UniProtKB/TrEMBL annotation, chain B:
Gene3D superfamilies linked to this entry: Cyclophilin-like
Species of the source: Rubrobacter taiwanensis
Transmembrane keyword on record: no
Lineage: Bacteria, Bacillati, Actinomycetota, Rubrobacteria, Rubrobacterales
Domain Carboxyltransferase intervals: 24-315
The protein's name in its UniProt record: Biotin-dependent carboxyltransferase
Length: 301, 324
């Protein structure tokens, strides 16, 4: 089993990002397995506290390390990364100490709806909404069935970036159930803060207002970035999401949206969070059964 | 002592060497775009490394000093004037209480740096005083300077002993409107056809009006991607890859036209294929180019890039010693 799984992933590509970065593309295609590898490798690298490393950035199917090459030669780092890669292998037995988080989202909210209508001329299908279009090209009978699939299983945060705090999320479902949508033909010049978007195979919450090219499905009432650190969940960092977090996007109505927004305003909002030790191999083996267990941890008490 | 902003100039921001260690949460480094000029400014006025100064883009501000100070203007040739009298660049100058520093029009380069003995004392945010305007943090209230702002200046390390110190002529960079930037090809360069990679390295590119602290966009050629069935998660455009991290200085080519070099305030990741990275030393050169300037990209090895880096470090050490 172990040998079989290892051969499924191609050879990693190691490359220099100028003189200050090492970029490692583990695979060209996205999969949960490749992301678990990226996380396991970068977690181990972080534990080693190697002198000369300034930033360790796991991403979806790759990762990047910023170094001071005067202290650590890029080739020396690559040598160590190849060793760690071999040690991590197919992530069998790897554990990720993470969190499961309830992330309320209002689908088809008035704010992203206004936005997507305004930028219809930049979209593949000017005559339907982003949700209708995405449901159709993914073979769903209805918009509702599509929403059900999106919100029916939890997601894992596979990368943070673009702008501070923006989480890329990939759904914990088998490859054949992964939803995939193109980005806008031409990016929008405006996206509301906290928009719930989708592009390629990834769901995101836009942490700040700005340009964007992902399909717009809804909006979250609670922030993922709080630069003033007013909310309790942001005391340690201005950014809430962490790589490896498991987000359950929970559909809410306008009433709950307004209530949460008022709590955020008042500074009393707290995310529902449960500590969790995630076993990638269990998720790969039987994602739906494992998801039940994960949601039990989140909502069980 | 403080600096009063009478006119802000086009885009004047507080910057230091940058904010590091937070790239994984999507926080770009910000910081001075031309680190050579920024560093030499601090040497001239006797500041410790890392003291914050002002980055002045294209058009200078008008600044009033509320007390005596020692300052130096480095970088782009944008001659400073004290109370209307032209003063030299790359030299430690004295100003007195009530003096006004202004700037003549830009002669060459794009960004000038103002170092003041004692440094600009804005609060540190995540270990740096650099301005990051996108989320409105760092620097002076997270934004470019505006008329009426007042910037506190720190206590100088060793008083006014440095007035008159100047950088030796042979170290002063000349800024041309035609430059060559060295790049290390790599990252997702396998996405470009061989001919297109060759074209990228031979075409003379022109800086478009889209050229700022986020990135520089160029025009001049058209590049093609290798045809493939797009892998899971990447999205449908041939320029798209599964979203990944972007090194500072990395080059991407959305749509095959208009390569973009990402710079200090750029997005930290995204779904466009990156094809290479401008080496750190040459980002100083890039930072002094402007719209309509012409640029060629030349491929170098890692060893050449590290050699250039070593030479730059030794040069800065020698300059620091000369000015000490």
């Amino acid at each position: 089993m172990r040998g079989d799984m290892q051969t499924e992933l191609p050879q990693a590509r190691y490359s220099y990002g100028g003189d200050e970065y090492v970029f490692v593309e583990l695979a060209e295609g996205m999969s949960l397995k490749v992301n678990f590898r990226a996380m396991a490798i970068t977690n181990r690298l972080r534990e080693e506290n190697i002198e000369g490393i300034t930033d360790i950035c796991p991403s979806n199917a790759s990762y990047m390390v910023r170094i001071d090459p005067d202290v650590l030669h890029p080739d020396e780092l690559i040598g160590r990364l190849r060793e760690i890669d071999a040690e991590v292998g197919d992530v069998a037995g790897v554990e990720l100490r993470t969190r499961v988080v309830d992330v309320p989202v209002m689908m088809e909210d008035p704010w992203t709806h206004e936005t997507l209508m305004r930028f219809r001329d930049r979209h593949q299908d000017p005559n339907s909404t982003d949700l209708e279009y995405s449901a159709r090209i993914n073979g769903f009978e209805s918009k509702e069935a599509f929403i059900e699939a999106l919100l029916g299983s939890p997601w894992i945060v596979t990368m943070i970036g673009f702008v501070p705090g923006l989480p890329w999320c990939y759904q914990l479902v088998p490859p054949e159930e992964q939803v995939e949508v193109p980005k806008y033909v031409r990016p929008r010049t405006y996206t509301p803060e906290r928009a719930f978007g989708f592009g390629g195979g990834f769901a995101v919450i836009y942490s700040v207002e700005g340009a964007g090219g992902y399909q717009l499905f809804g909006r979250a009432p609670a922030p993922v970035l709080d630069v003033k650190q007013r909310l309790k969940d942001f005391r340690e960092s201005i950014v809430f999401p962490r790589p490896g977090d498991i987000f359950n996007f929970r559909r809410i109505d306008r009433e709950e949206y307004d209530r949460i927004e008022a709590e955020v305003e008042a500074g009393t909002f707290e995310y529902r969070i449960r500590e969790f030790t995630f076993h990638p191999d269990r998720s790969l083996e039987d994602p739906h059964a494992y998801n039940e267990e994960i949601l039990g941890v989140l909502y069980g008490d | 002592m403080a600096i009063r902003v009478r006119q802000p100039g086009l885009l004047t921001t507080v910057q230091d060497a940058g904010r590091f260690g937070y790239y994984d949460i999507g926080m770009p480094p910000s910081g001075a775009m031309d680190l050579f000029s920024y560093r030499v400014g601090n040497y001239l006025v006797g500041n410790p490394d890392g003291a914050a100064g002002l980055e002045i883009t294209y058009m200078g501000p008008e600044l009033e000093f509320t007390g005596d100070a020692v300052l130096a203007v480095t970088g782009a040739e944008m001659p400073p004037k004290i109370n209307g009298e032209e003063a030299p660049t790359w030299e430690a100058l004295r100003v007195r209480e009530g003096d006004v520093l202004s700037f003549d029009y830009l002669r060459s380069g794009a960004r000038a740096y103002l170092a003041v003995a004692g440094g600009i004392e804005v609060p540190e945010f995540m270990d740096s005083r650099s301005t990051y305007t996108l989320i409105g943090l760092g620097g002076h209230e997270g934004r470019a300077l505006q008329e009426g702002d007042e910037l506190r200046v720190g206590e100088p390390a060793n008083g006014s002993g440095r007035v008159g110190r100047r950088l030796d002529e042979r170290h002063i960079p000349a800024y041309a409107d035609e430059v060559e930037l060295r790049v290390i090809i790599g990252l997702c360069s396998y996405r470009l056809t061989e001919e297109s990679l060759e074209e990228f390295l031979t075409v003379e590119w022109t800086v478009t009006p889209d050229a700022d602290r986020i990135g520089y966009r160029y025009r001049g050629g058209e590049l093609r991607f290798v045809e493939r069935e797009q892998p899971p998660g990447a999205g449908s455009d041939p320029a798209n890859v599964v979203d990944l991290g972007y090194p500072v200085g990395s080059i991407q080519v959305p749509g095959g036209v208009e390569p973009i070099v990402l710079l200090n305030d750029a997005v930290t990741g995204g779904g466009y294929a990156t094809i290479g990275t401008v080496i750190s030393v040459d980002r100083d050169v890039l930072a002094q180019t402007k719209t309509n300037d012409r640029t060629r990209f030349r491929s170098v090895t890692l060893e050449e890039a590290l050699q250039a880096r070593r030479e730059r470090r030794e040069l800065l050490a020698a300059i620091k010693e000369e000015l000490a």
